[in-house]
Amino acid sequence: MVPEHLTSPPVRDLHILLLNGQTAALLAVAAFDLGYFPSARTLARTTAVYGESTRFAPLQAYADGTLAYIAYHSGESNEALSKARRALSYGGLGDVAQRRLHAIAARAYAHLGDVASARRTIRLSQDRGQDARDELHDEGG
């Protein structure tokens, strides 16, 4: 059995990994805003790797949400919906994160012609929530 201190990164390293992930997330959004969808997708996937390696659900959800709206704007509504659903499945998300992801999913549903699901998801995106917060969307964002 390997001692835990040899398999888990020290807190300082974890903090650096989270900062790298947040930086990749910001760069992904900037690339998207500039119309560089392939670069945005690569940076969002990089963000997802940092989120997964740090086990930081808000970063994973942000990455999948970014991949969802890149897919939506690339004409891949089914992929957008899949990514948004996956992002919503992570625990520990605040209300802001959940509203963002529901709004992305609602667009995909509407584009796919699923009016009932689009309306239901729009209502979820407008829901007041539980006053839940997360460290990325509310504290860092």
Question: How would you describe this structure to a colleague?
Answer:
There is one protein chain. 38% of the residues are buried. By secondary structure, this protein is mostly helical. The chain has helices spanning 4-7, 11-33, 37-54, 57-73, 77-88, 95-112, 115-126, 135-140. The termini are far apart. Helix 4 (57-73) packs parallel to helix 6 (95-112) and helix 5 (77-88) runs antiparallel to helix 6 (95-112). The protein is globular, with a radius of gyration of 16 Å. The model has no long low-confidence stretch (mean pLDDT 87).
Give me the secondary-structure topology.
Elements: H1 4-7, H2 11-33, H3 37-54, H4 57-73, H5 77-88, H6 95-112, H7 115-126, H8 135-140
**How much helix, percentage-wise, in residues?**
over 70%
Strand-residue fraction?
under 5%
Gyration radius, in Å: 16 Å
User: Largest beta sheet, briefly?
Assistant: none
Identify low-pLDDT runs.
Answer: none
Oligomer: single chain
Enumerate how many helices there are, as a single number: 8
* Secondary-structure content class: mainly alpha
Pattern of helices and strands:
HHHHHHHH
Shape: globular
The tally of beta strands, per DSSP, is 0
Give the rounded overall mean pLDDT: 87
Give the distance, in angstroms, between the N- and C-terminal Cα atoms. Answer: 39 Å
